[in-house]
């Protein structure tokens, strides 16, 4: 299928016709999770958005190399401690045990949401050599300096000589002074806006590697530059992530790539917007937060019931990836109703037949809506508009099923097109699954319990006993008894 596709480029701040660097091939890099703590629902929304973008390119006939990294070193907390190292210290595990534990959890939740795995999923700790080589190149090109075993990127020099710093975020050097965190060794920098691309390890720092500048570890921004370059080349098509990564992470990536390779890494920068909860930013300290598991089980005072993973994914489709998405109980209930209505229409199609001999107004209306759905999808991946077009077809399906529309009023070729396009968009592009399969409420409960027990088994495998116990106890309070045995876990309604 050959279709013109427009994407909103955060770099140019306008929609552009997508033109791949290599004909028929798309290179896409998306910043993955920092694997310490369970996956935040906002991250789920971001990765589901890029899953749909990935699927769309494949649906349109492109071969896609989708690279999504795992950050397992260099992402420092405000006190200067590495997130993974802190997790290892608090949980009394090796750092790579922490990485594996939370990487497994991330993969589990991505499978629950039916997100396709990326083509390549590199880890920062597996690419220390590449990061050291990039630091050497930046130093050689004069855009970095070494101080006491640490290496810093020279932001003012880069901005003066290239004029490119701030292209993505719109920030200028003076603005950056207010953004600088009060971390260790600030006094080593030539300028407060400079950032570390290699950091000297303190004696107590357990994640450390030898380098030409002494034992240390790479800066957070460096990993994505090194890994995207290794797997996609100096220039590739798309770099994506959440809008919170524009500055400083993506801005510094651009600087590093220019500093080492002499060019920007990506032609198109795509950023997903944030997830709100009842109109406010999620915050644990304010009690305004909900986890994916709480959404599924209903174990939260913020919602009236649990929602299946596909209802939640359907809910995410109802807002454009560049728009904020507000989780409310009312919105989830509406998504559940919409998902069921769409799936019921889809399941009705096999039993319907058209006997029309010539194209009718109904035929034309349906075909126009289907064409519009694909056109909306190709307009910066506009899933809510594409869904709206599919919903225009649903009353016609229901009318034919209920007898309000006669079989003679619609051609079989039109119904065949409905099956093809609706099936392609719902399942291939939007990544939905049929959760009920005609079994009603009991089928939904079976599917949901299988999911919950899978999540609990994953927690037990990772020796995350508090989470496993919390799931079991929550089910007990809901009247469901979980029994663990040699063959696995089973459940009964008490």
Describe this structure in words.
The chain is of the alpha/beta class. Helix content is 46%, strand content 14%. It has 16 helices and 15 strands. The chain has a four-stranded parallel beta sheet with strand order 4-3-9-10, with helices on both faces.
Descriptive terms for the model:
Rossmann fold; about 500 residues; four-stranded antiparallel β-sheet
What is the count of β-strands?
15
**How would a textbook summarize the main sheet?**
4 strands, parallel
The CATH topology of the largest domain: Rossmann fold
Distance between the termini: 53 Å
Strand order of the largest sheet: 4-3-9-10
Low-confidence segments, given as residue ranges, are 178-182, 437-442
State Rg. Answer: 25 Å
Q: What is the CATH domain class of the largest domain?
A: Alpha Beta
- Please identify the structural class as seen in this structure: alpha/beta
| Residue-averaged pLDDT | 91
Portion in strands: 5-15%
CATH architecture of the largest domain: 3-Layer(aba) Sandwich
The name of the CATH superfamily of the largest domain reads HUPs
- Count of domain modules: 3
Count of runs of 4 or more consecutive helical residues: 16
Form type: globular
Percent of residues in helices comes to: 40-55%
